[in-house]
């Protein structure tokens, strides 16, 4: 009997086994999320109101009308076009929307993985990024909510732009692709302005062209916005009290992302798993992130720290989806440090627990929405919503619990 040791070093074999286990468990978590999403009813305010309005709106009217409801302070023609196309194709059938939403999550994971590769991160960080996208309370809120699908598109555009900027493509092609992504993101949601972060990187080699392209897109967006809803970013004519509240909201959002000591703009009142996890992740970024002065790290820090300004007049977790994506990439950069060999696996395990808790919480929230709103209300809780739309949505929601 041959009792000799194998030629392959044991640590390498163990790492391969660990990667296999990580990918298998990550796949289970993602499948679990889809199963839970498939049994989630329409959000009874934004989803129903927005889809009903789009169903009565012509495509030609979309570029010249406010988003969501008449008189709203939002201008999102790309978001309205996307949801109008989906509603034209699917009507009030719920499952196809969830398939599209889950497909958007997979596309976000792919573009983020490509961006990670452009940042020279090892493949072991991809499972971590996957469970982070599920577990982050700032990203998952957008992933599971149909009305926030345009926000996920903004994240995809940012990740794709990151991959483009740090690719080996020609400078002219980088500018062209980033301009397309900038237009797409801006048309989806106001925080698409964050893609201006790519401008300095492109202006370094193409100063005139980059300035003209990014300037024309930005000015064109604000001109269309002003012509449609009459103001820039919802802060016109704000009183000093409103501005003070806005500053407080921004501060609370930054604290939420980096420490999770605030939630929805308010201090947390109970210690949950996500708080020590966020604190530990931030500590890892602060202690282990290599090359703090590198161009990728600077870009991601600008987005992670600065995009809280898009909290509008109130603080919400979902407003932090874009800075949270930058935060996740910073965490992946920190865990790729070679100082602690098993660090990527340990961090993946910690965020896998958070991802599992998120899937559980999404299921509980869906059940609560059905039992608290859909089951007891035979007539629409919103007077402006037609009875026949509520009946369809209610019938669908109740069927999910049968």
Give structural notes.
This protein has helices spanning 10-38, 46-55, 77-90, 94-118, 125-135, 137-143, 149-165, 171-188, 199-203, 207-229, 240-259, 274-288, 295-306, 321-335, 343-374, 387-400, and strands at 262-263, 266-267. The protein is mostly helical. Strands 1-2 form a two-stranded antiparallel ribbon. The model is unreliable at 1-10 (pLDDT under 50).
Summarize the structure.
The protein has helices spanning about 10-40, 45-55, 75-90, 95-120, 125-135, 135-145, 150-165, 170-190, 200-205, 205-230, 240-260, 275-290, 295-305, 320-335, 345-375, 385-400; strands at about 260-265, 265.
What is the secondary structure topology, with strand pairs?
Elements: H1 10-38, H2 46-55, H3 77-90, H4 94-118, H5 125-135, H6 137-143, H7 149-165, H8 171-188, H9 199-203, H10 207-229, H11 240-259, E1 262-263, E2 266-267, H12 274-288, H13 295-306, H14 321-335, H15 343-374, H16 387-400
Antiparallel strand pairs: 1-2
Distinct helical segment count: 16
Number of strands: 2
- Spatial separation of the terminal alpha carbons: 60 Å
Tell me the overall shape: globular
Order of helices and strands: HHHHHHHHHHHEEHHHHH
Q: What are the segments in which pLDDT stays under 50 over at least 5 consecutive residues? A: 1-10
Give the helix proportion (percent range): 55-70%
Spatial strand order of the main sheet: 1-2
Largest sheet: 2 strands, antiparallel
User: What is the CA-atom radius of gyration, in angstroms?
Assistant: 22 Å
How many domains? The number is 1
Whole-number mean pLDDT:
90
Helix-strand category: mainly alpha
Percent in strands: under 5%
């Amino acid at each position: 009997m041959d009792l000799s040791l194998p030629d392959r070093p044991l640590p390498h074999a163990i790492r391969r086994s660990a990667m296999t286990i990580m990918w298998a468990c990550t796949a289970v978590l993602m499948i679990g999320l889809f199963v839970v999403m498939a049994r989630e009813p329409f959000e009874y305010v934004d989803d129903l109101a927005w889809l009903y309005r789009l169903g009565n709106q012509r495509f030609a009217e979309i570029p010249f009308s406010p988003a969501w409801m008449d008189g709203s302070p939002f201008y999102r023609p790309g978001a309205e076009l996307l949801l109008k196309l989906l509603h034209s194709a699917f009507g009030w059938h719920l499952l196809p929307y969830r398939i599209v939403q889950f497909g958007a999550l997979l596309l976000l994971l792919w573009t983020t993985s490509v961006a990670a590769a452009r940042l020279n991160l090892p493949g072991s960080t991809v499972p971590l990024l996957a469970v982070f996208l599920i577990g982050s309370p700032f990203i998952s809120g957008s992933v599971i909510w149909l009305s926030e699908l345009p926000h996920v598109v903004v994240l995809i555009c940012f990740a794709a732009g990151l991959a483009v900027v740090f690719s080996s493509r020609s400078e002219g092609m980088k500018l062209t692709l980033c301009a397309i992504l900038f237009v797409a993101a801006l048309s989806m949601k106001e925080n698409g302005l964050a893609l201006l972060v790519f401008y300095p990187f492109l202006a370094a080699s193409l100063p005139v062209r980059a300035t003209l392209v990014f300037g024309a897109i930005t000015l064109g967006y604000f001109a269309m916005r002003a012509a449609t809803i009459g103001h820039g970013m919802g802060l016109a004519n704000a009183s000093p009290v409103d501005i003070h509240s806005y500053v407080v909201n921004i501060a609370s959002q930054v604290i939420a992302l980096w420490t999770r000591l605030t939630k929805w703009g308010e201090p947390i009142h109970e210690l949950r798993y996500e708080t020590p996890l966020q604190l530990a992740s931030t500590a890892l970024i602060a202690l282990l992130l290599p090359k703090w002065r590198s161009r990728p790290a600077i870009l991601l820090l600008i987005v992670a720290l600065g995009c809280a300004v898009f909290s509008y007049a109130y603080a919400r977790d979902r407003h932090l989806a874009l800075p949270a994506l930058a935060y996740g990439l910073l965490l992946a950069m920190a865990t790729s440090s070679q100082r602690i060999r098993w660090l990527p696996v340990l961090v993946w395990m910690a965020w896998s627990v958070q991802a599992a808790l998120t899937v559980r919480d999404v299921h509980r929230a869906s059940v609560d929405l059905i039992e608290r709103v859909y089951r007891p209300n035979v007539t629409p809780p919103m007077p402006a919503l037609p009875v026949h739309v509520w009946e369809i949505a209610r019938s669908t929601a109740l069927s999910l619990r049968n």
